[in-house]
Specification:
The complex is a heterodimer of chains A (114) and B (110).
Chain A (H helix, E strand, L loop, with lengths): L3 E3 L3 E4 L5 E7 L5 E8 L3 E8 L6 E2 L7 E6 L2 E6 L8 E8 L9 E2 L3 E5 L1
Parallel strand pairs in A: 2-11
Antiparallel strand pairs in A: 1-3, 3-8, 4-5, 4-9, 5-6, 7-8, 9-10, 9-11
Chain B lengths: L3 E3 L2 E5 L4 E7 L4 E9 L5 E8 L4 E4 L2 E6 L4 E6 L8 E9 L4 E3 L3 E6 L1
Parallel strand pairs in B: 2-11
Antiparallel strand pairs in B: 1-3, 3-8, 4-5, 4-9, 6-7, 7-8, 9-10, 9-11
Classes of the chains: A mainly beta (114), B mainly beta (110).
Chain lengths: 114, 110
């Protein structure tokens, strides 16, 4: 079974802190994605990566950056956390572009910024 | 950007059929998906349909696609309490990224 692992289930950080959310997949998938999920807003795409060292902005990239130095790991970085970044963050991976391969999701990281 | 709309809430009794509806705006959608999210978990793919099909059946699940009206539905037959979850409709534009709806919370009462 494909496994997408997010390093923390719950995180509490202070405003202004630099926050790293880590995601690892074990199936050699090329594509990886970061979404945030908010009540009433559904899932919104923050950033995605087609392959190592590649990144593309999603619909709401402001206030975030990403890093993909190794194929299995995709990190989401909040340079200076703010209270409006309190949310559930979901990582996902997919075999590769140009296929109908399904997205596999991690269990999510609930981030609270105080 | 492209839009995917769903009703936010549906309540049914155990044993009834549930129908969750979704509308989308992107006429170049290639695939449409239904994902399920149980409490405290990530999303899991339930089923999908290619845009040139109008129906797909998979055990208790039936997906209907009306491409002219850009309307997608998911019917769950004999709904069980374990089906209580949030259901997300999503579309794949070309072969790039998925756009998700806001999710429909299905509550199944005994």
């Amino acid at each position: 079974d494909v496994k997408v692992t997010q390093s923390s289930r719950y995180l509490v950080k202070r405003t202004g802190e630099k926050v790293f959310l880590e995601c690892v997949q074990d199936m050699d998938h090329e594509n990886m994605f970061w979404y945030r999920q908010d009540p009433g807003l559904g899932l919104r795409l923050i950033y995605f990566s087609y392959d190592v060292k590649m990144k593309e902005k999603g619909d709401i990239p402001e206030g975030y950056s990403v890093s993909r130095e190794k194929k299995e790991r995709f990190s989401l970085i909040l340079e200076s956390a703010s209270t409006n970044q309190t949310s559930m963050y979901l990582c996902a991976s997919r075999v590769r572009l140009a296929t109908n391969e399904k997205l596999f999701f991690g269990s999510g990281t609930q981030l609270s910024v105080l | 950007g492209e839009d995917v709309e769903q009703s936010l809430f549906l309540s049914v009794r155990e044993g009834d059929s549930s129908v969750i509806n979704c509308t989308y705006t992107d006429s170049s959608s290639t695939y449409l998906y239904w994902y399920k999210q149980e409490p405290g978990a990530g999303l899991q793919l339930l089923t999908y349909i290619f845009s040139n099909m109008d129906m797909k059946q998979d055990q208790r699940l039936t997906v209907l696609l009306n491409k002219k009206d850009k309307h997608l539905s998911l019917r769950i037959a004999d709904t069980q309490t374990g089906d209580s979850a949030i259901y997300f409709c999503a579309e794949l534009e070309g072969y790039s990224t998925l756009t998700f709806g806001k999710g429909t919370m299905l509550l199944v009462s005994p």
